[in-house]
Amino acid sequence: MTTIVVPYHQDERLPDESIPVPPDGTTVTVDAPLPDGSVWQRLATLYDVVARTVAAHSGPDVMPVVISGDCLVALATIVGTQRAGLDPSIVWFDAHGDVHTLQTSTSGYLGGMALSLAMGRHPERLAEPLGLRPLSEQQAVLVDARDLDPAEADFLSTSELKRYSVEDLLPAGLPGGALILHVDVDVIDIDELPGMRFPAPDGPSKNSVLAALHRVLQTGRVVALDISCPWNPAAGQQDVAIRTALLKELVALR
Fold first, then answer.
1. Sequence-separated (6 or more) residues with CB below 8 Å from residue 28
2. Helical residues (DSSP H) of the chain, grouped into ranges
3. CA 202, CA 235: separation in Å to the nearest integer?
4. Number of neighbouring beta carbons within 10 Å of residue 230
5. Under DSSP, is residue 107 helix (H, G, I), strand (E, B) or coil?
6. Per-residue pLDDT at 232
7. What's the average model confidence in pLDDT over 201-230?
8. The pTM is what?
C-alpha cells in the first residue's frame, strides 16, 4: 500500500518533519512548483499533482493513504479516485463542519469551506479546474462536527447531509458504493492531541475515533484514506511522539 504525503498547509510548503509518517510500505511525497497568482490558482496546480498521484495508486484492492496539512487536500483525493474510474462518497470526521462558503465565512479560512467545495459550492475555484464531479449531499456523512459557526448550523439544519457522533456512526448509516474516509485529526479531544490550529474541546477519545474508523473500513468499501493534520509546529518532543504514534495507528488501520 502507498502512503502519499502532501506536506502543505494550503499553498504553504511545510517542513518535512511537520508530518511524521511511519516508514511502513511505500511513501510518496508530493511537491509541486506553484505558479505566481491567486491562492486558488496555486492550489489547483498542487491538487492536480496530488490527484494524478492518487489516481496512479488507486485501483482494485489498492487503497492509498493521503496525509496532508489541511482538509482542502481531500478535494484532490476525491478527484484522484474519480480519475481512477470510481464514484466515491465521503465520510468526513472533523471537529468542525467545513461547510462554510465565501459568503458565510467570518474568518476567510479556506479549510473551513472544504466540504462545501467538495459538494459543488464555488465550482470555478477548484472543482472546474480539477475536473471534480461534485458530491451530492446524500454522498457525504459528517462525523462529530461539534464546533459549528451559526451559518454552518443553519445550513446543516436543512441539509440532506447526514450527521453522526463518533459513537453512533455505524455501517448502516453510510452511503452505498465506494467511500473515501477523511479524518481531520482535530476530531480527537485536545487533551489527547494538543497543538491544533483550531482546537475544539470536549471531543471524543482517540480510541473511540479509531474504533469508528475501523467500523467504516470493515465494510471493505473504502477506496482511500485521507488524513488531515492541521496542527501548529510541535512544541517539543512530546508533541512529536504523540503525533508520530497517532499517524502510525491511523496508517495501520488500512
1. 2, 3, 4, 5, 53, 57
2. 39-56, 73-83, 114-118, 127-130, 150-158, 206-217, 237-252
3. 22
4. 21
5. coil
6. 97
7. 98
8. 0.97
What's the CA gap between 119 and 121, in Å, rounded? 6
Alpha carbons 116 and 112: distance in angstroms, whole number: 9
pLDDT in tens, 195-208: 999 999 999 999 99
- In the predicted model, what is the mean pLDDT of residues 7-26? 91
The residue whose grid cell reads 469508528 is 212
Residue 37 CB-density burial (10 A; 0-12 exposed, 13-18 middle, 19+ buried): exposed
CATH no. of 2-252: 3.40.800.10
The reported pLDDT for the residue numbered 214 is 98
Rounded Cα–Cα distance for residues 34 and 7 (Å): 14
Q: What digits encode the pLDDT tens for the residues 51-65? A: 999 999 998 888 999
Spatial CB neighbours of 60, under 8 Å, sequence gap ≥ 6: none
